Amino acid sequence: MAESECTPLEKLLNQISGQWTMYILWILDTNGTMRFGELKRKIDSISPKVLTQRLRMLEEIGIVYRSYESTIPPQVSYELTERGKELSKPLYDLCDLASRWYDGEANT
Amino acid sequence: MAESECTPLEKLLNQISGQWTMYILWILDTNGTMRFGELKRKIDSISPKVLTQRLRMLEEIGIVYRSYESTIPPQVSYELTERGKELSKPLYDLCDLASRWYDGEANT
DNA sequence: TAAAGTAGTTACCATTTAGTAACTCTATAA
DNA sequence: TTATAGAGTTACTAAATGGTAACTACTTTA
């Protein structure tokens, strides 16, 4: 899809619609600052490659802040930026909806 | 990603995170009942194949209702179900955010 | 008589995406 | 002395995805 010539909503949706993306944001939103390994363990079935890709992209568009400390072993933390925190409300609504729709339901 | 063994939010996000999906829902939300061709023209750069796929999937999970009238030429309409309308609020919030972030900005 | 309109479907191909396993670096713990 | 930890990176492969163009049906319009 052409990235240019689209509405603001289309642009935002293109950014956050990738697999895992919104879920990562939700985890960061509810847990606050987290290290790479923590995130990886929380999401579990995501591969480190994809997790890195998503985090770098989210950093690039100003939704996630990455802080790096070059200790050995290195410590890298991720958190939502002010802009990223604005996604909190719609994410919460989706989570609430999802619970009402799917909680206590067998996954087929 | 495994569809089973995931939280309600993950399940919902898996369903609506595909390309175009949330945008289609937004268009249906703001325009009400629409015919296939209208939808196609509104979104434009989507291919008919993918539009059909998305609509069928959304129908299957109970978010979109499809009504078919076998006139010649046939008339097919799509609209959000009651459940689908529950997505209205988070979608509106995302749209609002997107406008504030990206309105009047050059797309790079 | 031929084209247009509606709502798709189908086959085929190219691209994108995701997963896997192996590897990096250095200090510290066992 | 070897393994482990943390935060990735890289190459390779497999799968999913999306686009394109052609085609369906039948009636009405030009």
Structure in words:
The structure is a homodimer of 108-residue chains. The first copy, chain A, is an alpha+beta fold and 108 residues long. Chain A has a single domain (20-99), classed as Arc Repressor Mutant, subunit A. Chain A has helices spanning 8-16, 21-31, 36-43, 48-60, 82-85, 88-102, and strands at residues 34-35, 64-69, 75-80. In chain A, a hairpin with a 5-residue loop joins strand 2 (64-69) and strand 3 (75-80). Chains A and B meet through helix 1, helix 2 and helix 6 of A and helix 1, helix 2 and helix 6 of B.
Keywords:
homodimer, 108 residues, alpha+beta, Arc Repressor Mutant, subunit A, three-stranded antiparallel beta sheet, 56% helix, globular, DNA-binding
Provide the CATH top-level class of chain A: Mainly Alpha
Oligomer: homodimer
The average pLDDT score of chain A comes to: 92
Strand content of chain A: 5-15%
- Strand count, sense and closure of the main sheet of chain A? 3 strands, antiparallel
Could you tell me the CATH topology label of chain A.
Arc Repressor Mutant, subunit A
| Largest beta sheet: strand ordering of chain A | 1-3-2
Portion in helices of chain A: 55-70%
Number of domains of chain A: 1
- Number of beta-strand segments of chain A: 3
Overall 3D form of chain A: globular
Summarize the structure.
The structure is a homodimer of 108-residue chains. In chain A, 56% of the residues lie in helices and 13% in strands. The first copy, chain A, is an alpha+beta fold.
